[in-house]
């Protein structure tokens, strides 16, 4: 039996460790959010009980802990998602400065999104993590940037702030640096659509489609892939499914025609507007399942969790005090 790219992907660490269904993904995020809350409370407790400026016995310090902890504004799961998405868009801006490839940007975003499936924003601020994720992604994709050039170009960051987080991020990622992107299957579909629908135009194909139109659709689909990297689809669908969903979004007629022709060539089945011709019920179900999957992916791609500037500022303020509970103690002390 021939081993397909799909077989190889399903043996990959990305599929084994970072693939979920929506229910499990939400449950995981809820656990991480709860862990983040506990992390903040434990850190606050340690600071209060070890603060020489807070005089009194343990009962007094426990009362002080309860008083200050009641004023902490934790971020919820949705707010965490919004802030991760907000800082994910910064990756695109920084990548332009270094003229980084689509693959490097995609890998950096994958690292960032995966990190926050294991850690909460209340433990590590996304702004600090994204820089190291981008630095690691450049090395991982053989686009090495020296640390000195990196910090000099970005500014307002230190060498220590980048390098001190490298091992932490690698450890959280389980050292899974190989990232499978939708870009390669998207290009593969681009070539195959060109061959299937243009160079070997099937009999009965009534609509007009040229290489120029395909180039336009491919360019638009690539732009859509960039958006999917910020969404959750990378955890819920395979790269080829995401690529097909992007083509479906930019040109549904052509994508459906392509899929019909591929199944027809395999002697599986061909669906016309008013009739379904099937050779086997099983293949018919497989086609419908594929179409259902990529439509589900297409629908999820449209969901947006991008906060407004005002909302992002408010959430960022909460995260600031959660990641720096000592600031909250000092704030209360000044009152």
From TrEMBL:
Residues 89-171 form the Cyclin-like domain. Belongs to the cyclin family. GO terms for biological process: cellular response to nitrogen starvation; nucleotide-excision repair; positive regulation of Atg1/ULK1 kinase complex assembly; positive regulation of autophagy; regulation of transcription by RNA polymerase II; transcription initiation at RNA polymerase II promoter. It comes from the Eukaryota. SMART domains: CYCLIN (SM00385). GO terms for molecular function: cyclin-dependent protein serine/threonine kinase regulator activity. This is Cyclin-like protein. Keywords: Cyclin. It comes from Ascoidea rubescens DSM 1968. GO terms for cellular component: transcription factor TFIIK complex.
